[in-house]
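Bench notes, afternoon.
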Amino acid sequence: MSPAKDRNDWNPEAYARFRGLRLRPALDLLAQIPAIPDGDVVDLGCGNGSVGLSLKQRFGDRISGIDSSPAMLEEAGHTGAYCNLVEADIAQWQPTSPPALIYSNAALHWLESHETLMPKLAQMLMPGGVLAVQMPRQFGAPSHRFLRDIAQSMFPDRFDYTGWQAPVAPATTYWQMLAPLGQVDTWEIDYVQHLEPSSVGHPVRRFTESTAMRPFVEKLSETEAGDFIHRYEAALGSAYPLLPDGGVLFPIRRLFFTLKV
């Protein structure tokens, strides 16, 4: 694997640092999935396989994991939850046969054109199958807005958010989009997360560095990234002040839906 690919690949260790906080929405989605027929279960954008064992516990030995990151797939393989692991771009992935469940936790917000993507995924399912999706809807919060604002201010040659729109719409939009296709349920949850103190950097920066911050840092040199992170952390300090224990309260909104076709 080349150094460039290493730098751009996901970091399983950094992502797993907040495993408990990231797992809770995944399990909240899993709890709301209705009964599914016999057939394959697909963990689309499975990452490091953090939900794999929970999927296996509920649905048995029929779980396939799909992800574009070799590093994440390697970690997912260590869980023993998956019958099959496939390296693929989740935007282009096609099943070999109609699945009973396509489950996607915190992955599809990286993709565009949800008005075509979600119906396309639904059409892949077998009759009675279920599409279950969770995505963060945090893009207007300081943690994410500061990334865009600071990047465009510091590096206007590489970042232009003129006309930018959030990739995840409100829950009502997904209900209207999916209701013609089957039985749909949509909802949102605001989680108030307590992030533990960090010995290196602001706790919110440590939370976002393995996800929301990645596309920004990937376009910067090491020196530029250091300057960018310094300004980002200064802004985070005003929006998310430290608690007496050195941690912070970090509200985050997540969107969910299930669709039974």
